[in-house]
Amino acid sequence: MQIDLFPGFSEQFFHVNGNRLFARVGGPDDAPPLLLIHGFPQSHLEWHPVALDLATTHRVVVIDLKGYGRSAAPAGDAAHLVYSKATWAAEAAEIMRQLGHQRFTVVGHDRGAQVAYKLALDFPERIERLGIMDNLPVFVVWEMIKAVPGSLDHWTWMAEPYPTPEQRMTAEYIEEMCRPYSGSGTLDCFHPAALEQFRLDWSDQAHVHAYCEDFRAGAGPDLETDLADMAAGKRITCPTLILWSRLVFGASPKTPLDIWRETFAPEAFGNGVDHGHFIVEENPTAALEGIRQLLSVDDRFREQPLSMAAQ
């Protein structure tokens, strides 16, 4: 019997730029809107540990980015713009517009965090609050990779020209890629029903190609727009939460919070979270507390430390 990880949520498809994009929507119709964006190599299913709780007070929208989950996975283009974070951000904004939400809070994890902060930079009038989970500005990650060759090596080899990365990425290979990023070194944090669907996606060549195009965009247009945004002095001024795993970026000399404050989000607040990269599944209590605190910050934003639950 199929398990419904989002009871009470509706399933909806949206036509955006010629593609069919998937989302689940739940919570009171008139509640403040909250958009949740997943990371690589997952889908909207990663949010199931916190979505039902958040839907008691908010209109929660969990999407599958183009190329992931149940959304369309078209072929990439020569410039890698189809899967750029600017394109994804515009598509997410359009989904929210079609749902009738002009202003909303967005929280993203991993690649979804890159889409979330691009939304805040490109559509500042529409983003009320921003949550970043376990990622850094794209240009900073590339600086780290150059400084420590071999670190985050998938950022490099997945960006190689088609079809070399696609040929390497079998479902089994992707699963082995993920294991070291969890605190336990296993994928036991994933709900069996979610992991079953992830494995189906990892076995599909269209999805795998989209994953590689995502990282090719990361080495091309995403890096270029990041540098241009920094040079132009663009900054995020809405309340901004930074959560990071101590296993990945938390091991650097500067904390992710330090880095975000020095770059795009000078007034961000946040903290490290125990366990590994898959924060929502590995420590849903800390993830939920962080998101709840972000949602409680009004427009008179000021820094507020997280409680010990997220330490």
Structural class: alpha/beta
The largest sheet has its strands arranged as 1-2-4-3-5-6-7-8
Largest sheet: 8 strands, mixed
The global form is globular
Q: How many individual β-strands?
A: 8
- Give the count of helical stretches: 13
Rg is 18 Å
Could you state the order of secondary-structure elements as H and E?
EEEHEHEHEHHHHHHHEHEHH
Distance between the termini: 38 Å
Report the uncertain regions.
299-311
Helical content class: 25-40%
Please state roughly what percent of the residues sit in beta strands, choosing from under 5%, 5-15%, 15-25%, 25-35%, 35-45% or over 45%. 15-25%
> Which whole number gives the mean pLDDT?
94
Helix and strand arrangement:
Layout (H helix, E strand, L loop, with lengths): L9 E7 L2 E8 L6 E5 L10 H7 L4 E5 L21 H14 L5 E6 L1 H12 L4 E7 L4 H10 L5 H5 L6 H5 L2 H8 L13 H11 L2 H15 L1 H11 L8 E6 L10 H7 L6 E5 L5 H4 L1 H13 L15
Parallel strand pairs: 3-4, 3-5, 5-6, 6-7, 7-8
Antiparallel strand pairs: 1-2, 2-4
Structure overview:
The protein is of the alpha/beta class. The chain is about 40% helix and about 15% strand. It has 13 helices and 8 strands. It has an 8-stranded mixed β-sheet with strand order 1-2-4-3-5-6-7-8, with helices on both faces. Helix 2 (about 85-100) crosses helix 3 (about 110-120) and helix 7 crosses helix 8. Residues about 300-310 have low confidence and may be disordered.
